[in-house]
């Protein structure tokens, strides 16, 4: 494994920790600022929307400098945002800090995916992307549970202070280990946006929004769901997050391995499995053992979609991958925002803490239907030659 992939994974670890740790300390944050749990959910939605907005803007701006310099700048933004969250005197200021930190997220993973893919042979690109995202999954095994424990024991402000330090470590890792790859080849903004003429790019982003939205419908309110419904203690949430993170880790690795061999079949299996798991979670959430097992399965199935969807984007936008890749990371977080909002709506309407799982199952099912449509269009384009659906004559990757 190239050491540069380790550096990218370190940065992903810090970003993954700050993205997900808020869910473990959501009740504590809500209590300190005297807001409701659904209102505190805006710290999830705000972060996610910041990724959606920041990813394309910062990625386009980043075409003017080397990818390494842009990655370093993004880690600097991440550090500032988390430091602001840690010191926030009001809920509004904390929300601003979350949004600032989120600006780095999409562009880092988008640019990092391109860098990772360029470090290895063509047949190992999805695996390389999964290794970078491994930092995100490890964050959910170590960073998020650890941050949740610290937040419950010493206060959530200490948690975000530690996350800012993680960002500094990520900055140093990128500075020392990531090689200079020069500016992106497609340095013109018009060229980068040309990738969005391909309907497959839009389908992939829609699958990402809906599939990952399904995961976050269940996970955003996991702390109150596990304590109020399953009957776990507050301290047990830390270990439940370890289980979720372990599932993410395994799913991400398997997703990268099988996406290099059979990308679309991998998506069919994982999205259908995710929809079923979310549906079952409405019932298994009432049993401590079954709730823990289902939570781990949701993590595995949800994150098994990450490498194939990210690779599909890179293949379909082969002449201008940087912006499309970052936009897909934004799509992940648009799904997060959608799910957090939907979850807050159904909880506030009085349907209970398991109700978001129904919404998540519907989102994942819709993503499965879109994956079937994308596969059908891909087969049609192969049969007719140049892609009719995409509006350009570039072939798609042969290994799909």
Automatic annotation (TrEMBL):
PROSITE patterns: MFS. One of its GO terms (cellular component) is plasma membrane. Pfam families: MFS_1. Residues 4-382 form the Major facilitator superfamily (MFS) profile domain. It is found in: Cell membrane. The keyword rRNA-binding does not apply. It is a multi-pass membrane protein. The chain crosses the membrane at residues 42-63, 70-96, 102-121, 128-150, 156-178, 199-224, 236-255, 262-283, 289-309, 330-352, 358-377. Keywords: Cell membrane, Membrane, Transmembrane, Transmembrane helix. SUPFAM superfamilies: MFS general substrate transporter. GO terms for molecular function: transmembrane transporter activity. Its main location: membrane. Coiled coil: none annotated. PANTHER family: CHLORAMPHENICOL EFFLUX PUMP RV0191, PURINE EFFLUX PUMP PBUE. This is DHA1 family inner membrane transport protein.
């Amino acid at each position: 494994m190239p050491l540069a992939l380790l550096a990218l994974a370190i940065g992903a670890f810090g970003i993954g920790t700050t993205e997900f740790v808020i869910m473990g300390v959501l009740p504590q944050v809500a209590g300190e600022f005297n807001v409701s749990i659904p209102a505190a959910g805006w710290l999830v939605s705000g972060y996610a929307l910041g990724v959606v907005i920041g990813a394309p803007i910062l990625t386009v701006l980043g075409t003017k400098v080397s990818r390494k310099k842009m990655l370093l700048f993004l880690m600097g933004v991440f550090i500032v945002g988390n430091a602001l969250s840690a010191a926030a005197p009001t809920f509004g200021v904390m929300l601003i800090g979350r949004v600032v930190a989120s600006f780095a997220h999409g562009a880092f993973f988008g640019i990092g995916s391109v860098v990772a893919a360029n470090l290895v042979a063509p047949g190992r690109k999805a695996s390389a992307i999964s290794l970078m995202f491994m930092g995100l999954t490890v964050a959910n095994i170590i960073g998020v549970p650890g941050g949740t424990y610290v937040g419950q024991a010493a206060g959530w402000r200490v948690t975000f202070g530690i996350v800012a330090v993680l960002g500094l470590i990520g900055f140093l890792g990128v500075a020392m280990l990531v090689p200079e790859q020069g500016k992106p080849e497609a340095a013109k903004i018009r060229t980068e946006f040309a990738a969005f003429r391909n309907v497959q790019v839009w389908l992939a982003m829609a699958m990402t929004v809906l599939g990952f939205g399904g995961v976050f419908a269940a996970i955003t309110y996991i702390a109150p769901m596990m304590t109020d419904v399953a009957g776990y203690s507050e301290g047990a949430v830390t270990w439940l997050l370890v289980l979720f993170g372990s599932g993410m880790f395994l799913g991400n690795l398997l997703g990268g391995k099988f996406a290099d061999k059979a990308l679309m079949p991998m998506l069919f299996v994982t999205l259908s499995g995710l929809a079923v798991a979310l549906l079952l979670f409405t019932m298994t959430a009432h049993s401590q053992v079954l709730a823990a097992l289902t939570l781990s399965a949701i993590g595995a199935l949800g994150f098994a979609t990450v490498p194939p969807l990210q690779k599909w984007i890179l293949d379909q936008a082969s002449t201008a991958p940087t912006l499309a890749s970052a936009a897909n990371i934004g799509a992940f977080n648009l799904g997060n925002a959608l799910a957090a909002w939907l979850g807050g709506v159904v909880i506030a309407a009085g349907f209970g803490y398991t109700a978001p799982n129904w919404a998540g199952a519907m989102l994942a099912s819709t993503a499965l239907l879109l994956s079937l449509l994308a596969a059908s269009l891909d087969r049609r384009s192969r049969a007719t030659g140049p892609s009719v659906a995409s509006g350009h004559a570039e072939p798609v990757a042969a290994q799909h």
